[in-house]
Amino acid sequence: MTDRPLWSGRFSTPPAPQAQALGRSLAVDVVLVAEDARAGAAHVEALREAGLLTDDEARQLADALVRVRDAIVAGTFSFDPADEDIHSAVERGVTDLLGDVGAKLHAGRSRNDLVATDVRLHLLGLAAAAVEDVRAVARALLMRAREHIDDPMPGSTHVRAAQPITVGHHLCAHAWALARDLERFSEWRGRANVSPLGAGALATSTLGLDPAAAAARLGFHRAFDNSLDAVSDRDVVQEAVAVASICATHLSRLAADLLRWIDPALGWAELDEAYSTGSSMMPQKRNPDTAELARAKAARIAGDFVTLASMLQGLPLGYQRDLQEDKEPAFDALRTVSSVAGALAGAVTTLRIDTVAMRAACADPALYATDVAEALVKTGVPFRAAHRRTGELLKTLAEDGRTLADLDDAGWVDLGVPDGAALLDPDRSIAARTAPGGPSHASVQAQLAALDALLAS
Ligand code: ARG
Fold first, then answer.
1. Going from the N-terminus, what domains does the chain have, and what CATH number goes with each?
2. Annotated catalytic, 12?
3. Under a CB-based contact definition with an 8 Å cutoff, are residues 313 and 223 in contact?
4. Is 50 exceeded by the pLDDT of residue 1?
5. Which of 57, 78, 255, 394 has its CA 20 to 30 A from that of 170?
6. Model-level pTM greater than 0.85?
C-alpha cells in the first residue's frame, strides 16, 4: 500500500491534499467496479493472446480482479488516499495481491480507454433498466386505455374544453410518446455498443493487442474506429442523457395531466393512497406528491443534459480531466428517469378514473360547436362561413344566457342543420371521427394493437 498515486514516478512531491480531494471521483465511480473488473479481464485476455502474459499469469490476474471486485462490493476493501478513482483502486488492489504480476495489468491500457469502456457498459445496464420501467408505464397506459376505450371525456386545447375524445384516446397519446422514447433508447443502444478498449491513452499501443477480440469478450457489437475518438467522444453519454431527458419530459406531461384530472375542482380521477401522501399539519390532506415529483424531475434531468453539454462544448479532442464530470449527471439522469417511471407505472395502474364525472363534463354543448360547423360544411357551406355562422349563433345564445342545448327545432332549421340537436352527444361525436388516429373506437383499437406490437419488440 502507498499513499502515492500510481503515476507518481516522475514526481518528487506528492499531490496537495486539496488537489487530491478535488480530483478524487471514487464516490461517484465506485459503481463502475463490476464493469472495471470485466474490462480488466478482457484486457488480460488481450495481453495473453499477444503473448505478454503466460496462461498462469493471466489466470492469477483474472482471479485477483474478481477478488478485488468482490471485496469492494462487500465493503471490505480498504481504499487508500491515493486511489483517485475506481480504476486506480482496482489496479492497486490487484497489485497488492499479486506484486509483479499485478503490475503487468495496465500494459497497453490507459484509464482513458478504460473509463470510456466502463461507462458505456454501465450506461447500457442503466438504460436497460430504464427501458423496462418506461415500458411498464406504457403497458399501464394501454391497460387503462383498453378499459376506457368507450368512455368520453372533454379533450382540451389551452386547458379549456375543446372537443370530446375518449379516455382511451388520451391515454394512448401518452403511450405513443413513450413508445418513441423506447425507440430512441434502442437506437442509442446501437451506437453505444462500440468498445473503446484498446484505444489506450489516445493512440492504441505498440503491444499488438486486438481491440475487436476485447470488444467481443465484453459483449459489444464491435470495437472503435479511431482511438482518439474512442477516448475523447462523450456523445454516447450525452445522447443517453438527451434520450432520458426527452422521456422524462413525457413522463412530466403525463404527471401534469394526472394532476389536472385529480384536481378536486375537476374530480375526474383519484390517485390511489399508495401514491399519495399526507400533511404533517393538516389531518384532512391527501396530496399527490408522486405526480408532482414526476412532473418536477424532468427539470433535474434537463439540468443533467445542460451540465454535460456545457462541460463538453469547446473541449479539444484527447482526454482531459473535464471529462470526469460526465458520470454524475449521466448516472443521475438514467436512475431518475427509472424511478419516475417506476412510480408512475403504479400510479397509472391504480388510478381511479371517474367515468361518470368525465361523461358529465361532456354535457357542455360548446364541445360540439365544431361538429355543428362541420355539419354545415357537409351541406356545401364554405367552412369559414360555417364557422362564422355558428360563432354568431353562439354569441346570440350567450347574450340570453343560453347555449346550443337551448336551441329549438326552428332555431336549428334556421341555422341550416335541421337535426342539429342530435349532434350534442359525445358518443355520436366520437363515433363520427372515423379517421385513423382519431378517438373513434375502431381507431383507438388499431392504435392499441400497434402499440402492443411496438412494446413487445
Ligand atoms: N477518473 C477519470 C475519469 O473518470 C479516469 C481517467 C483518468 N485519466 C487521466 N488521464 N487522468 O475520467
1. 8-107 (1.10.275.10), 112-155+167-209+221-360 (1.20.200.10), 363-452 (1.10.40.30)
2. no
3. no
4. no
5. 394
6. yes
